[in-house]
Amino acid sequence: MPSKERFAEGPVALFECLQQIPCNPCADACPRGAITVKEINDCPSLNEELCNGCGICMTHCPGLSIFVVDYTYGKEVALVKIPYEFSPLPSAKEEVDALNRQGECVGSAQVIRVQNSPNKTNIIWLSVPQELAMEVRSIRLRKEERDGAK
After folding, report:
1. Residues near 2 by Cβ (< 8 Å), separated by ≥ 6?
2. Burial class of residue 85 (count of CB atoms within 10 Å of its CB; 0-12, 13-18, 19+)
3. What DSSP designation does 119 have?
4. CA–CA dist 33, 49 (Å, integer)
5. What's the CA gap between 18 and 78, in Å, rounded?
6. Fewer CB within 10 Å, N or C, the chain?
7. 107 near 98, Cβ under 8 Å?
8. What is the pLDDT of residue 148?
9. How far apart are the C-alpha atoms of 12 and 81, rounded to whole Å?
10. What whole-number distance in Å separates Cα of residue 78 and Cα of residue 71?
11. Displacement of CA 79 from its chain's centroid (Å)
């Protein structure tokens, strides 16, 4: 977990990779060399000083276990980037339900950007209240907004 001081510097990747399995695409994808995997079965380590929160590692993680959090995004809101492989994709400016790791709705989020990736792991940029930045790990589209958008 990055320190409070590191979070104050800008976006940084967070790894919720809990299983020691043979995997290292995130380390290979990082253009800054911020991610290392000592042994192929080890969980990745992040050099927080090298990470700029670009999120390229997120599109290469088969476990969808990497997120980017930026507490400097706004005074009361944080930017949370999440991997997303569902269809349909949300749209920029759309309000969505913010879900925690158990799939429970913990609040509301606004989609800032949908970053399409050629490998099908899209990145959704969410504006969330700062107090939810460490909880929000997925979204649920709101049917009524989808129906109204048609």
Report:
1. 12, 14, 46, 48
2. exposed
3. T
4. 11
5. 24
6. C
7. yes
8. 64
9. 10
10. 5
11. 9
pTM (global) more than 0.90 = yes
pLDDT score of 18: 84
User: What is the model's pLDDT at position 1?
Assistant: 85
Tell me the C-alpha to C-alpha distance, in Å, between residue 77 and each of 31, 54, 113, 126, 129: 28, 19, 15, 10, 4
Q: Are 100 and 32 in contact (CB under 8 A)?
A: no
Say whether 91 sits in a helix, a strand or coil.
coil
Per-residue pLDDT, 128:
98
Residues of the chain under the 50 pLDDT cut:
none
Q: What is the pLDDT of residue 150?
A: 54
* Residue recorded with tokens 């320190």: 3
| Beta bridge partners of residue 123, listed in sequence order | 83, 115
What tens digit of pLDDT does each residue of 31-41 get? 999 999 999 99
DSSP state of 131: G
Q: Rounded to whole angstroms, how far apart are CA atoms 79 and 73?
A: 6
Q: Phi and psi for 125 in degrees, rounded to 5?
A: -95, 120
- Chain center to CA of 143: 23
